[in-house]
Structure formats: structure tokens, C-alpha cells
Amino acid sequence: MLRKIKIVVISSLFLFLLLVIGVYALRNTLLNCYVSGKTQSLSASFGLAIHYEKLAMNGVRTIQLNGLTVVPQQRDTLLQLHQLEVKLDFWSLLGLHINVSEVNADGLNVSFVKGDSLSNYDFLFKAKKENTDILEEENESDFSDRAERMLHLAFGFLPSNGEMKGIRVTHTKGDTVTAIGMDSLIVSNNIFNGTVTVTEKQVSGRWTISGTIDNKEKNVMMKICSATNGKVQLPYIGNYYNAGISFDTLAFSLAESRKDELLHLQGKAEVSGLSVFHQTLSPDTIDLNEARFNYLVHISKEYIELDSATTVLCNKLKFNPYIRAERKGKWHLTASVNKPMFNSQELFSSLPGGLFSNLDGIRSEGRLGYHFFFDVDMNKVDSLRLESEVTTDHFRIRQYGAVDLRKMNAPFIYTAYEQGEPVRSFEVGPGNPGFVPLDSISPLLQMSVLQSEDGEFFWHRGFRLDAMREALIHDLKVKRFARGGSTITMQLVKNVFLNRKKNIARKVEESILVWLIENGGLTTKDRMFEVYLNIAEWGPNVYGAKEASEFYFAKQPSQLSVEEAIFMASIIPKPKRFRGSFTPDMRLRESLSGYYRLLAQRLAIKGLISEEEAAAINPQVVLRGRATETFLQPTDTVLMPLSDISFPLTSDTLQTKAIAPK
């Protein structure tokens, strides 16, 4: 029996040895067969011609590739590689894992060419058809497993040693050529260094890149800075996106670890001397002296979480954000920021230059604290929660910035904008014949506007979180930005202090200005409402209650009837489309009947009209002013749907005072 076992063991070892010898002897044949199959598949799927002069395996762990070219069908050559030598980690190979220990490359040229309608990289954006079962399996796999596989793949191909020479990447579109070249990138014992040369039209620059790679410990660090003591200016985006990004130094690090079922990613990203320009952010260049992001991310089977131990530093301001995205059916997103009391000037000194022009140079004293919480489960959108609160301790403004935020207290020049361009300027004050004091405006119009635009204006402090929450819920349900939650104060600040060009910075600056004006009591509610009614757009080039009353009814704003007041309130959301409220014979459309009845009921509750008057409301007005002339002209005016008329007719609206308090 023992003899038979020995024979079996010896035979097995002999067969295994023969197999190893056979695989070794046929390694080049097997390698070329495998690669040939893959290249044929890629060629068929994406219309590529892939050729190479030589592919061979030297020894048991070195692969050599010479003369590789990739040419899309009827397009310019995309990739050329003179020579590549890859050495694999032997022990990883025994475990059937691929880990690259050394890479030596020479003469890599990647050329992206964009024509009028075609490019040699179109295939990269083609949707690849996949088997339905594979897709379903991928969707069911956990986040941590998928992230770990991608990271292992990335780390597996990062070499510990090697040299890459003659690397050049170009993008050509018309007469604009963007070229990024690297004469040599040397990796020695996990440490890499190289110099990058960038040219684009008349712009050129040289960068140094350095850092460490450790594919066994799974961490990487990288730093980019100018080789000439200037700024690193990113190419391409300026010519093609009318944007600009430059910086002094950029550094990044990432380390991966796993504990139990959680995958942890930890590291930092920091930049100094950052300058950013794009019209969607701000009309001016944004300058940020220092920004640092020390992050800790947890990835489990069902969620991805940015730990609250994460620190964000923006100049002098530091805070700890928390974000969690979980998928159970649909996404469930939670985000929060809790900033304990801090010196208020840290906030204003940390605002990036060029981002908030009205706040440049502002000085304050005292302390501020901030709490923010947002939670939405897309499985039950109505449960959305939104919290935002600023706390103060002896806070006050010592010096105003570029603009005096008290400007509305006295007569001032208001400029109206259309599509970001100024169209008309006029004084908001007695010096303007079109100005009308608040007490000369019909209480019916005042209350109709309040009920339509901001029912709690005289009670809130600039923001209505309930209205914002309801607007978010509605927008998420219809999957578009269909409704906003702006208060009258927010509309005032947007029109009086900010240019009308829509960008991200404007919305943030608007929120800061609203808070400063409302919580500092810089302008009374009466005066703000008076200004609002005198600058509101009520039609094409029609601004203010006096012009509007004359334009529609040839009346003064103190003489308006109930129906006329409700009509004027109804067109504020879309003033240039006022004709959509009428039939061709200048009669109000039946679709407005419900709106009229609701506003009339609210006016009755406020004591401005009787219940009998509200019940007998007749949704009709007679145009007598210059507005009648527009019906004699051809137009492409679109009908104004009721969804464009926003009015907060909720139970809390009943708290609104009958008229603006004195």
C-alpha cells in the first residue's frame, strides 16, 4: 500500500514538473495567443487596428513589448509605443495575482486629434454592451468589494522601480495643440521623480512631480509644483472651456486598509496659491491662499461614509463635514456640519478673494457657531429633513466691506438687469417721480404680494427653511429645478447688491448678505418691503408698483381694486409673460379662477375684505393702461401655467400681519 502511494506521489510530481516545463517552453506561444484574442476582441468592439512587432516573455516574470500601435479605423494614430519591459513580482504570480515590480518604457506617444465632428478617440465614449446577468451581478456586489478590486488593480500596476522615457501626450483641435511631455520619470525603491513640460500656443511651463508608491502597503503620495518657481497652470481648459486653474503646490496622499467588513481610505489633499476662473463660479478670478483636506472614508457593503474626523481648512477657517451615502433600493443621503463657536473674523478673513466682492474688507468682532443637517431618503422623499442655524455671541460688524450693507436705508440708485446685462437705472427714493412710499400703496396689493411671494416676511429672519424643504421635495420628485424657496429678503439682496449673472458664488454670497442684514437689523422690514415694491419687475421694462399700476390700469397703486391687486401679485414670478394670463380679447383665463379664490380667502382672513366680498370675487380685470397696446402687436408669448405662480398658502401664513407694521 505504501509503495502504491509513493508511486502516485512520484507520478504526480513528475506530471506537475512536465506541466511546468511545458508551460515554460510554450510561454511565448500562450502569451501571444491570449493577447491576440484580447486585441481581436477590442478591435471588433471599437473599430481599432492594434499591431505590435514583438511580444515575448523573458524568463518567468519579464514581459517585453516592442512597436505597439493603436489606430482607430479611418482616424489618426492614437498610440505609439517603441518599447516596454514589465517585470512581475514572482511570489504574487505563484498566488495567481499580478503585481508589477518594475516598468521600463521608451517612446510612448499618445495623440488625441479632434476634427469638426469626428475624433480619433470617439470609441472611448461608446457604450459597451454587457450581458444583463453581469450587470445585475455588478449592481448587487458591495461597495467595499468593488472599491477594493479597483484599488488592488491600480496598486498592482504601480511599479516599485523603473524608468519611463520619451513620454508625450498631445491634443490637437484646429490650430490649437496642447502637448504634455516627460523626458524621464524614474522610480527607485518606491520613490519617483520627474519633470513635465507643457506647451500650448504661446504658453509653456515646466513642472516637477515627486512622491512615493508602495503597492504592498497600498499607499501613494504625490506632489506637483513649478520647476521655475512660478505657478503651475493647467493647460487645455483655458482654450476649450474659457476657464483657468493655477496653483503654487498641489499634494495628495492615499492609504488603503481593511478592518472587518469596512474598507478605509485615509489621506490628504492640499493646495497653496490656488487661482480659479470660470463664469459659472464667479465673474472674477478666485484666489485661495491655502486649502487642506484631511479625509477618512469608510466603505462598507451598503454605504460610503466621509467620517466626521475629516478636516477641511480654507485659509483660516476649519470645519469637520460628515457625509453618508447609502443604497437600499434608492439612495439615502445624509450630510452635516457642526462648527462650535469661533472668532467671527476667521470666517470673513477666509473667504476666497474675488468670490464675494461685497464682503471684501469686512471686519467683525464676536463669535459665531453653525449647525447644518440634511437628510433625504429617495425611497420616501417626503421625510426630507433640512436644518441650518447660525448662533452668535456678541457679534457685530465693525467695518463694512466694498459695499455698505445699510445702503437701502437711504435713497440709492438701483440698476435692473436682464440676462446679466444692465438695462435701466433709477433712484429708489423721493427724487424719483416713480417712487411711492409704502403707506401710499394699497394694503390689498401689499397683502396679495406677501401671500404670493413670502407670507412670513415680517416674522422670519431672512430664510424660510420650511419653504426650502418643500421646494427641495418637489424638485426631487419632478427631477428638475422647478420651484425655489426664496424669501423677499433673498430677492432683494439678489437684485440690490449682486449682479444678476447666475453663478454658484452669487448664491452663497446672497445667503451671507441676507443673514447679515436680517440678523444685524441693518434695514427695517418696512423699508425692505417698500424697496421691494418699488423695484419689482411687473412687465417688460416696468418696475415698481407705481409704474405697474399705471401700465395696466392707468391708476395709482393706492386705488387698486381687489381683483387688480391679486392680478398684479400673480404676475411677479413671470412678469414678461403677463399676456399669457389673458385671452386674445384681453379677458383673464379661467385657469386663474382658483388662484383668485384662494388669495381672496386669505385677504378676508386678514380682515382686508369681508367674507361676502371674497365669496363674490370675480376673476376679471379691465386693462386701461399701456398694457393694452401690447395686444395689438404679434407675440410669441407662452401661456403662464399656474405652476409659475408661487404662493405659500399654508397654515403658518395666517400669522402674517394684515399690512406692513408701522
Description of the structure:
The chain is α+β, with helices and mostly antiparallel strands and 662 residues long. It has a domain at 407-438 and 448-655: Penicillin binding protein transpeptidase fold (Orthogonal Bundle), CATH 1.10.3810.10. Helices cover 28% and strands 36% of the residues. The chain has 17 helices and 26 strands. The protein has a 22-stranded mixed β-sheet that branches. Strands 23-24 form a two-stranded antiparallel ribbon. Strands 25-26 form a two-stranded antiparallel ribbon. Helix 10 crosses helix 12. It is elongated and about 115 Å long. The N and C termini lie far apart (111 Å).
Topology:
Layout: H1 2-25, H2 27-46, E1 48-51, E2 54-58, E3 62-72, E4 79-88, H3 90-94, E5 100-114, H4 132-140, H5 143-156, E6 161-173, E7 176-188, E8 191-200, E9 203-214, E10 219-226, E11 232-233, H6 237-241, E12 244-247, E13 249-259, E14 262-278, E15 282-299, E16 303-306, E17 311-314, E18 317-319, E19 321-328, E20 330-343, H7 344-350, E21 363-377, E22 385-399, E23 412-418, E24 421-428, H8 443-453, H9 465-478, H10 488-496, H11 504-519, H12 525-535, E25 537-539, E26 542-543, H13 545-553, H14 562-570, H15 593-605, H16 611-615, H17 627-630
Parallel strand pairs: 5-6
Antiparallel strand pairs: 1-3, 2-3, 3-4, 4-5, 6-7, 7-8, 8-9, 9-10, 10-13, 11-12, 12-14, 13-14, 14-15, 15-16, 15-17, 16-19, 17-18, 19-20, 20-21, 21-22, 23-24, 25-26
Helix pairs in contact: 8-14, 10-11, 10-12, 14-15
